[in-house]
Amino acid sequence: MSPVDVLIAGGGVVGSAVAYFLSTEPSFGGTVLVVEPDPSYRFAASSRSASSIRQQFSTPLNIALSRFGLEFLRAGGLPGSGDLTDVEFHAATYLYLASPAGLEILTHNVAVQRACAVDARLYAPDALAARYPWLEVRGLAAGADTGTGEGWFDGFALLGALRRANQRRGVRYLRDRVAAIELGEDQRVEAVRLAGGETLRCAWLVNAAGTRARTLAASAGIDVPVFARKRNVFVFTSPAQIPDCPLVIDPSGVWFRGDGSRFLCGPVPTSDPDVDPDDFEVDHAQFEDLAWPALAHRVPAFEQARVTGAWAGHYDYNSFDQNAFIGPCEAVPNLLLACGFSGHGLQHSPGVGRAIAEWIAFGEYRSIDLGPFAHARYARAEPLRELNVI
Ligand SMILES: Cc1cc2nc3c(=O)[nH]c(=O)nc-3n(C[C@H](O)[C@H](O)[C@H](O)COP(=O)(O)OP(=O)(O)OC[C@H]3O[C@@H](n4cnc5c(N)ncnc54)[C@H](O)[C@@H]3O)c2cc1C
């Protein structure tokens, strides 16, 4: 195969968003090849996500990325493109709840968000009970929601729409796996070796391999602290009537949200080890042991919750600071990272795709400066910590 300008390892929502913004950038006339081993995406995080989008982050850059993600979803892709027709964005607030121990952080986060023009609102328990009458507020010190700009959508439809738009614009998807990166004497990526045996030369390599990004980067001598962390999602029905149910994050770490006539929920496991990226077995005991007690306490009508389904997926978890690694590696400048999203990669994929495309086309970020997300912060031991990880 002839050399390609940009080779993207991983065709999930992030890799496909990078390809989307490259193929629509008039200043970039190069070739783009996405190498993806599983076009069904059965095990990709992009198809096992809760597909929700929020403004309530503690890192201003994450807020900026979400804001662009929202704009992109609402506009149906790039303005006038008609690329995203069926992502079904549903507007609903997140509702963060804090115990007395969490009050300071929640108050701080709301201040950060308001400084970024998010209409975040902090409620004392009485006001919270008045705003959300179905909520048990005993034991809470505060809650925070937003007036606009949050909700959920069909994440798998977003991935499918990006992939179809890319293929229409000449991006090729190759069913294979990048087995190793080959560096030249100048410490730049020269080529990649595919599991199928072929060697492909490329001018740029984007590592969007999700939970496998660490193994892939290691083949170029780059240490990327991204691990697979399992998250179980449970589907349940309940007699509870909660019109416009928000996405509620309980101080216990359990979250729940509406999903049509059903509800989704997920606990943060008490022990949260790195797991084998091939382990997708649902831990059913987590519903009984972790989720249900918190649900029944917070919404008494959830006492009669009945589980009707469940799945497990993996966060590509950055154990260093729970924020993504985006952009070039200092030691290998034509190796661009787009990984370590720690549970918020779906909503950030449009902003990250646009940023990586800008870096390749112009040698700089033009819309949002994602320089602080560079891998160099890890080498310098300077974490950029995200406090609001669900
Ligand atoms: C339970 C759960 C709930 C979530 N909820 C949300 C949410 O509400 N909102 C949100 O924004 N995010 C959420 N996320 C996170 C979000 O789903 C991910 O951050 C996002 O999907 C990451 O996309 P990706 O393309 O980087 O990874 P993936 O979708 O995992 O894609 C990576 C792809 O790389 C391929 N690959 C792997 N190794 C190689 C290789 N060596 N060569 C080539 N290809 C390779 C894989 O086959 C895979 O298709 C959630 C995740 C989970 C698991």
Verbal overview:
With 390 residues, the chain is an alpha+beta fold. The chain folds into two domains: 4-84 and 154-225 and 320-379, 3-Layer(bba) Sandwich (FAD/NAD(P)-binding domain), CATH 3.50.50; 92-150 and 227-317, D-Amino Acid Oxidase, subunit A, domain 2 (D-Amino Acid Oxidase, Chain A, domain 2, 2-Layer Sandwich). It has nine helices and 19 strands. The protein has helices at 13-23, 60-75, 103-115, 125-131, 155-168, 213-218, 285-298, 345-362, 376-379; strands at 4-9, 32-35, 52-53, 90-91, 94-98, 120-123, 142-146, 151-152, 172-174, 178-183, 189-194, 199-207, 226-237, 247-249, 255-259, 262-266, 306-318, 325-328, 335-339. The strands form three sheets. Strands 1, 2, 9, 10, 11, 12, 18 and 19 form an eight-stranded mixed beta sheet that branches. An eight-stranded mixed beta sheet has the order 6-7-5-14-15-16-13-17, with helices on both faces. Strands 3-8-4 form a three-stranded antiparallel beta sheet. Strand 1 (4-9), helix 1 and strand 2 form a beta-alpha-beta unit. Helix 1 (13-23) packs parallel to helix 5, helix 1 (13-23) runs parallel beside helix 8 (345-362) and helix 2 (60-75) crosses helix 8. The protein is globular and about 65 Å long. The mean pLDDT is 97. The structure holds flavin-adenine dinucleotide (FAD). Flavin-adenine dinucleotide binds at residues 9-15, 35-38, 41, 44-46, 48-52, 177-178, 208-210, 212, 216, 231, 233, 313-316, 341, 343-347.
